[in-house]
Amino acid sequence: MTATEPTPATTQTDPYLKAFVRFEQASAGAQPSRLFPLRKAGLSRFAELGFPTLKLEDWRFTNVAPIAKLPFKPVFEATASSLTPAALAQFAFAKLPGTRLVFVNGIYCAELSTTPSHTNGIKVSSLATALANDSALVEKHLGRYVRTEDNAFAALNNAYFQDGGFVFVPAGTAIDEPVQFLFINTSKEAGATTHPRNLIIAERGAKLTVIESYVSLASAPTFTNAVTEFALGDNAVVEHCKFQDESPEAYHIAALHSHLGRAVNFSSHSIATGAKLSRNNIRTTLDGEGIEAVLNGVYITNGDQLADHHMVVDHAKPNCASHEYFNGILAGKSKGVFHGRILVRPDAQKTDAKQTNKNLLLSDDATADTKPQLEIYADDVKCTHGATIGQLNDESIYYLRSRGIGLENARRMLIHAFAGEIIDRVKHDALREELDALVWDRLEQHEAVAVGK
Amino acid sequence: MSQQPILAIQNLHAGVEEKKILKGINLVIRPGEVHAIMGPNGSGKSTLAAILAGRDAYDVTAGEVIYEGKDLLEMDPEIRAREGVFLAFQYPVEIPGVNSTYFLRAALNECRKHKSQPELDAMEFLTLVKEKMKLLELKEDLLKRAVNGGFSGGEKKRNEIFQMAVLEPKLAILDETDSGLDIDALKIVANGVNKLKSPTNAALVITHYQRLLDYIVPDFVHVLWDGHIVKTGGKELALELEEKGYDWLIKHDAVKA
Fold it and tell me: How many domains does chain A have?
């Protein structure tokens, strides 16, 4: 299943390689030199792999050629920004209490951030700060979980990342209020590229809720190439939500790589409503017994958007449960892509893995590609998968109408319910309620299409 | 002429594609009346219910249905509901993700708007709903669940009558509401229906078995066979059918088209 087409178009990667020299010189002294091997390895991996093409099985439904064609303009310096804290109120989760780290075009902005102090050895800061103050802790984990062997974009992030969110929750402690990383893209420049990099470390028995959001203030073909790594110790309980709502011209690629210890309870929600093209590469390694992992997501697209979720759940140890639930609501000419691979290694007996992907097509021109894939090398396991692509259920519409609810409202209720199945799995109450409202809002925007006008 | 009928069905013919199912139904239901329709499987009972409630799977080829002086067949299903027609489904669908309270309040308010009545706010609605739930002996946690989500067969049927109690229809049509109910649930359902009975509304009870009619006492019993009403009588007809079955009627009237 690995890349078998080692024919990268070097002309496409050239600007990326050239920019690295400048970047390396500019950041010399500013960042620990121990990062250089990680960066160089990332760069050479990227050069070797090149941009993925439709010929690669893992990319056959998602064409990233438009990204390769963008002028590469990595953002290395903080943008002078006229953003005020009050202006942030327009973004999702503004009212949630707790820490909120704000990044403008990839660079941390202290003035816009809310950083209540933490006790018990808990550390929440920008990654650049953590690299400066806690380099030993950061380097122990940074880059250890992300896999670049088959992911050129993650390799590119390794080469170029500047900043992002960092959380460390020591053994037995908890952060009650959610920790937010808010990435705001303000660039109007085509090809302006940021490489957000987040690292979340929760030690044994730690508890935490993390929210990543990606939004735009301008509409331009910018490129966000994010990587988030989770290192979760035994018995940690972590809820994660990624909300991607970038402008309809933006390109967004993200990797979420999680390494889970024994009896970890991890739920990760992906809400994708923005970007012209978005791809989430989610890789979860269940490397301890008794883990419960839930990967849950909804993508809501319109126009010519494409939203792709590509997932590998790697069961390495016995007695673990993993559930993936992804629903797509696709209007206009948009496209949803889902690829869910469940890998059960020989040791992983008594694995309980379940995967569903449901797609609701609201127009004749919307499409969905779904590819479940089970690879099972253990013999005592329970693995199921199911995928559907369809329209609203006529029986349900009729039932609602027979009680007096009009056709348009009936359809709207059912579309909302389809997203609600996913949102309902969010455990954090305030987060769930806000997501619910957000999704309603988005669906209302698609209403004209939704009701078949 | 007495009061205007709530429902007047005249010479109704209907079917699916080439298959004729109803072959000339005539039926008049006046305010305050309870009518029962009985008949063997495949006689067209559920088809009649579905056509009255506006399911578009059937073609009406002849005849008319006048509801309170208006052409019922011209109305969309939601308009029928707002005008006061209610069908308790034989197999209510589960609608995951649609909250029961939200759904029922939306439905009630649509019906109220249609009648130029003020909409109920969340508090007023909750008060009403709690009162009606007691009638059907339903637990309040049902309101937090999705519509019919994870309900047992009996709960689904009781939920149908509960919705009916909230919407207070002029014409209630019960499509084999008794099927699959144990005797206790049957009594609860029947009690609910009886409490809703008034001199201004009416019910059409479709059933396979006589036992429901021990609890919901009909004024008229009609026997449907092969798309025709082959016999009409009082409540004693149901008992007679229970005793003798349908064959004696069918032999008398076996005039196959």
Answer: 1
Q: How is domain B7-253 classified at the architecture level of CATH?
A: 3-Layer(aba) Sandwich (3.40)
Enclosing domain of residue A272: 10-287
Which of B75, B86, B93 to mutate to probe the A interface, most A CBs <10 Å? B93
Measured between CA atoms, the residue of chain B closest to residue A425 is B97
Model ipTM value: 0.94
> Within 10 A of A453 (CB to CB), how many other CB atoms are there?
7
Closest chain A residue to the Cα of B146, Cα to Cα: A417
Closest residue to A404, CB basis, from B81, B93, B147: B81
State percent of chain B over pLDDT 90: 74
Domain boundaries, chain B: 7-253
How close does chain A come to B237, measured CA to CA in Å? 31
Residue B62's CB is within 10 A of a number of other CB atoms, namely 12
- How big is the CA angle at A163 (ends A159 and A167), to the nearest 5 degrees? 120
User: Which pLDDT band holds residue A21 (cuts at 50, 70, 90)?
Assistant: confident
DSSP letters spanning A328-367? EEE-TT-EEEEEEEEEE-TT-TT-EEEEEEEEEE-STT-E
**Structure confidence by residue, pLDDT tens digits, A172-187:** 999 999 999 999 999 9
- Report how far Cα B229 is from the mean position of its chain's Cα atoms: 18
pLDDT in tens, A35-50: 889 999 999 999 999 9
CB A56 within 8 A of CB A5: yes
* B222 interface with A at CB cutoff 8 Å: no
Give the start-end residues of each E strand in A96-206: 100-104, 107-108, 123-126, 165-169, 179-185, 192-194, 197-202
Say what the alpha-carbon torsion angle B130, B131, B135, B139 is, to the nearest 10 degrees: 20
Residue A416 lies in a domain: no
- With H, G, I as helix, E, B as strand and everything else as coil, classify residue B48: helix
CA distance A376 to A342: 8
- Let me know: does A223 contact A251? Beta carbons within 8 Å: yes
Q: What is the pLDDT of residue A33?
A: 75
- Assess whether pLDDT exceeds 60 at residue B67: yes
Interface contact flag, B97 A405, Cβ < 8 Å:
no
Q: Which of B81, B96, B114 sits opposite A403 (nearest CB)?
A: B81
What single-letter amino acid sits at A274? G
- Chain A environment of B110 (Cβ under 8 Å): 404-406, 409
What is the pLDDT, as a whole number, of residue A186? 93
- Locate all alpha helices (DSSP H) within A65-151, ordered by sequence: 65-69, 127-133, 135-141
Which pLDDT score, from 0 to 100, does residue A11 have? 65
User: Which has the higher per-residue pLDDT, B62 or B144?
Assistant: B62
- Identify whether A405 is part of a domain: no
The answer to whether residue A450 is domain-embedded is: no
- Helix (H) or strand (E) holding A393, with range, is none
| For chain B, counts of helices (H) and of strands (E) | 8, 12
Q: Inter-chain contact B97–A400, Cβ cutoff 8 Å?
A: no
The answer to whether B255 faces chain A, any CB pair under 8 Å, is no
Give the containing element (helix H, strand E) for B155.
Answer: helix B153-167
pLDDT of B10 > 60? The answer is: yes
Indicate whether A212 belongs to any domain.
Answer: yes
- Residue A371: how many other CB atoms lie within 10 Å: 17
Q: Give the C-alpha separation, B86 to B169, whole Å.
A: 6
Examine the pLDDT at A165 and tell me if it is beyond 50. Answer: yes
Least confident of A21-25, A70-74, A212-216, A346-350: A21-25
A92 close to A183: Cβ distance less than 8 angstroms: no
Q: What is the mean pLDDT of residues B181-207?
A: 93
